[in-house]
Amino acid sequence: MRAGEAEDAEGERALSPEEMLGIIEDQRAAAARHFAGPLPAFYILWGLVWLIGYGALFVRYGVSGRPQGPLSLGVALTILFGTMALALVITGYAGWRQGSQVRGASQARGAMYGLSWFFGYMLVGALCGHFGRLLPEAERTLLWCSVSMLVVGLLFMAGGAVWGVRQMFAVGVWVTVVNVAGVVAGPGLHALFSAVGVGGVFIAMGVGIHLRTRLRPGRA
Q1: Over the range 20-43, which residues count as b (16 or more CB within 10 Å of their CB) and which as e?
Q2: Which residues of the chain have pLDDT under 70?
Q3: Per the UniProt record, which residue ranges are transmembrane (predicted)?
Q4: How far is CA 39 from the centre of its chain?
Q5: What are phi and psi of 5, to 5 degrees?
Q6: Residue 151 near residue 171 (C-beta atoms within 8 A)
């Protein structure tokens, strides 16, 4: 009995701090591999949305306010918000599928983070809808676009801080820097900076992550 009890006690001994840290790191790496799969598609999808949508706005306003092509504001905004709505549906469904495989605190944090985007854009609609009526067309468009990018940048930085993902935090910083530069430059250049500086960078990141994952399939 004493030998069996000693064996049970040995089997139930408390884990050392090094062993606990090892388990935590293994779980973190497994979670990173689990969520890294959709990242390339996410960046490429949203990069195309920004490139096409904000590219349409640039065609409308040009560098100095002169249209670069026969594109009305209504058509440009339809392209921008139509592609955004489609991408939101796709990423929302993908996020739901991905999150349904995770339980506990990670699932709760993911749900709260998703709600942050929803309520953030509710505020964008209320704020810009109220004050936009007081502005000329070009400045009203700049207000909508810049406040939307403000939400994107801040939530990317918040998400990177919550999950400890430096790349996500850096993306939020970059979006914010591009947004500030565009607001200072004006509506046309804001659209150009957003299309190329954000959309183009997102596409490049997605392709880069995909290629790196294929070369090193065992790593996140």
Answers
A1: eeeeeeeeeeeeeeebeeebbebb
A2: 1-38, 92-107, 110, 216-220
A3: 41-59, 71-94, 115-135, 141-163, 191-211
A4: 10
A5: -65, -40
A6: no
